[in-house]
Amino acid sequence: MGSYLLKRLGQSVLTVFLTISTVFVLIRLAPGDPAAAYAGPLATTEDLARIRAAFGLDRSVVEQYLLFLKGILTGDLGTSYSFRSPALDVVLERLPFTITLALAAILITTVVAVPLGVWMARRADTTRELGANVVTIAGQSMPDFWSGIMLLTVFAVLVPVLPASGFATWGGLVLPAVTVAILQIALISRLVRSEMAKNLTAPYLTVARSRGVSERALVWRYAMTNSSIPVVTALGTRFASMLNGVVVVEVVFAWPGVGSLVVRALETRDYPLIQATVLVTAALAVTVQLLVDLAYPLLDPRVRLGKKVSA
Amino acid sequence: MSTTHPGPARVRRSEPRPSAVTAKHLARAKVTRQRRGSRLKLWAGLVCTLLVVIPVALARVLPLPGPDQQDLASRRLAPLVDGHLFGTDQLGRDLLSRVLHGGQVSLLVGLLAVVVSGVIGVVLGASAGYFGGWVDTVVSRLLEAQLSLPLLMMLLLVVALFGPSIPVITFVIAIAQWPEVARLTRSLVLVEREKPYVAAARVLGLHRFAILLRHVLPNVVKQASLVVLLLLAQAVLLESALSYLGAGPQRPFATWGRIISDGQDYITTSWWMVTLPGLVIVALVVGVNLLGDGLRDRARRRKVSTP
């Protein structure tokens, strides 16, 4: 257990390190000068040189990289060019909004997708299941920016019951969360369906049924417990990828999260801000993955951490 | 006396043997329902896909105004007005023509991306599965790492870096998609390499690469190719998301995501500029997904019936 945890922690740190290093190199390869973007079109060469010196961009890339690594250890990720405040603070200020959105979306997904998947599994290969199947396919076929704009038009413009953008009230959370959830519901409910269909026809379920276990317990206690590992893994992975920024949906709804922050930072070539965002979100996503892995033994007592499951 | 006895000789051959199973039962049987379901999916998918693909392919031939032909006198005309089936946009360009021409780029990028990601995925997945050892370790780590990467962020970064040209965007989408193919191929090859014919080929002294290329891969490719349609659907969606964010191909024509983001500002007054291009994307992607799903169902059933 202890050594497994250490190994996984090491892997997580390595993943974050490689990610952030890749991003560091990539943004410096990119054309476009942050000093020019910062100073505007009227800046003189001397202005640009002064700004570059102030940003530390006149140093060599290796030197910048080492300074950056040192910054990670001391918690100083530089000053954002466009916000003129510490980049880490800017990201941490936005992070709760993305976490709120991701939590709301994953909650909606779980509440809708799991019962839907179970319903589909119990009616496997009937006409009604085919109908539900087509609906989930439609759900995973809609571009999220489009379904977002459509929801926005219907519920904020035509029938103004919900705010269109931003996060002033809790009502503002509904439309973005539903938009994110549509795709996830489609994917997760199909997974639940296939896992449950496998378990509902398993011999152990027939045995349990012959012992007089109620149908509800058969589905929710017997089959669901055995389907939970793949489902929880998928939910965790989805949640982790949402923390990496639900970029498109945040842009559509002007949601003040890290996703829309990244788009802005990329446009203004705000190096410290891009780096801080990637560092924070990658670290969070890796942590969620790790927590999901650690939860396996709780879901299935056969699992011993660090060993392959022989199910 | 003997003539009234219904002997076995009097039962005609053409009559079905008496059975408790009626035609009604057969029609309700699980296998029949499954087959009906997958056939329905295949047909519906084919219709939806062709409904989009044929007009897109014929965009240049159809009697439409050019996609960039502006007519400021007929700005934001509603659909069906003045012969504009999809209406016009804020610059008086024919929306249908824009959607069809943009669709050529979207589809081209999608198809190329599937080919590239398929090749990368099959090569890496097959070598990881067949050779094992450090090759497997490296590929598996890469697969895991990509799961925890901020994918869309990286894609935007690469497009910002190399410019939004068609090859760059194709490559970027392929990079996003190869793990799926690689994971599938790897697991299929892992099963395949334990089969006796591989051992036989090894005994015959064939080179490892020859066994993998000429014997293992042909047995795997058919199953692996089932994901192609699902990948195409994802590629089209990803391309539209990138172009919505302004990182899509700019030339020769604006693609679907870009058309929608252009129309977004006019959503309250001109609903069609966002709704109709979106519906075209949905129709295509639903169609491709249904086709892929139907094919997969059918393949799964075949596998069950002929072990």
Summarize the entry for a quick read.
By secondary structure, chain A is mainly alpha-helical. Chain A has 13 helices and no strands.
Secondary structure elements and pairings:
The complex is a heterodimer of chains A (311) and B (307).
Chain A: H1 2-29, H2 34-39, H3 45-55, H4 61-74, H5 87-122, H6 127-141, H7 144-158, H8 171-200, H9 203-210, H10 215-243, H11 247-252, H12 258-267, H13 271-299
Helix pairs in contact in A: 1-13, 5-6, 5-8, 5-10, 5-13, 6-8, 7-8, 8-10, 10-13, 12-13
Chain B: H1 23-28, H2 30-57, H3 95-131, H4 133-147, H5 151-162, H6 166-192, H7 196-203, H8 208-224, H9 228-244, H10 256-263, H11 272-305
Helix pairs in contact in B: 2-3, 2-11, 3-4, 3-6, 3-8, 3-9, 5-6, 6-8, 6-9, 7-8, 9-10, 9-11, 10-11
First-to-last CA distance of chain A: 20 Å
The value of Rg of chain B in angstroms is 27 Å
Strand content of chain B: under 5%
What is the CATH homologous superfamily assignment of chain A? Answer: MetI-like
- Which architecture name of the domain at 66-95 and 102-281 in chain B does CATH use? Orthogonal Bundle
**How many DSSP helices of chain B?**
11
Here the CATH topology of chain A equals MetI-like fold
Q: What do we call the CATH topology of the domain at 66-95 and 102-281 in chain B?
A: MetI-like fold
